[in-house]
Write a structure and sequence with these properties.
The protein has about 250 residues and is α+β, with helices and mostly antiparallel strands. It starts with 5 loop residues before the first helix and ends with a strand.
């Protein structure tokens, strides 16, 4: 993957801030009684307001601007007017934004209600912490992908969470999924080395049970095989000489 030019980085910074604003506003719209399609419609309006485009609508046939995954759904849930959010749900929101042809990717998981159970809190907080640990493991130019993978896995294992292995982080920019892949498990010092100017999506996906997953008949929605809850957090970051700059934040 070639390093981004200054103009490309500038475009991704703009797209990243737009994504962060839309995703932050969207998370506050996740309430009991709201349909997942209504959330997608909210995103459509936000994209227009901020002058950016969806990076996932039509990607390999995906039918929406937003992935909304509820409870045992890990990723790639298709919004529907018939899927109504309820108190106690865990809702994962995954958004891809394109600006001037450059793509950024971000996701978060939201608990619907006042107070999650201890296990649900462990899932959400642990997956969020794993994202932060993975980003912190990037020391800049020359960091092996395995260093990031091990840092993520260390947190998820400490929190006794299942680490989804069939889905991974990845480079991003001109395409949604570019090389190299960045698994959420692995050994430090192994794998391709990250170089300054690369842009990558770090995205731990975890469960309260086993790591195995299935794909529903819609061809998109990935669910835990054992029916346990799942969570997903993601940031797009720019590799710098000495670390990483989070692009998908305000």
């Amino acid at each position: 993957m070639a390093p981004k030019t200054e103009d490309e980085i500038k475009a991704m910074r703009y797209g990243g801030k737009a994504l962060a604003a839309i995703l932050g506003d969207l998370a506050r719209e996740v309430k009991p009684g709201v349909s997942t399609r209504a959330l997608a419609e909210y995103v459509t309006a936000g994209l227009k307001t901020r002058g950016v485009q969806s990076a996932i609508l039509g990607y390999e046939g995906f039918p929406s601007v937003l992935c909304v995954s509820v409870n045992e759904e890990v990723v790639h849930g298709i919004p529907s007017k018939n899927k109504i959010i309820r108190a106690g749900d865990v809702v994962s929101l995954d958004l891809g934004v394109s600006y001037k042809g450059l793509i950024v990717d971000g996701a978060c998981s939201v608990f619907v209600g006042q107070r999650p159970s201890a296990d649900t809190a462990r899932l959400i907080n642990g997956t969020r912490e794993a994202l932060a640990a993975g980003i912190q493991a990037i020391r800049g130019e020359g960091t092996p992908v395995g260093d990031v993978s091990q840092a993520i896995a260390k947190v998820l294992n400490r929190c006794k969470l299942g680490i989804v292995r069939d889905l991974v982080g990845h480079a991003v920019g001109h395409g949604i999924h570019e090389d190299p892949n960045i698994p959420n498990y692995g050994a430090a010092g192994t794998g391709p080395r990250l170089t300054a100017g690369m842009t990558v999506a770090i995205e731990p996906m975890a469960t309260l049970g086993d790591w195995h997953v299935n794909i529903l008949p819609d061809g998109w929605t990935v669910v835990t095989r054992d029916g346990t809850l799942a969570a997903h957090f993601e940031h797009t970051v720019l590799i710098t000489e000495t670390g990483a700059e989070i692009l998908t934040t305000l």
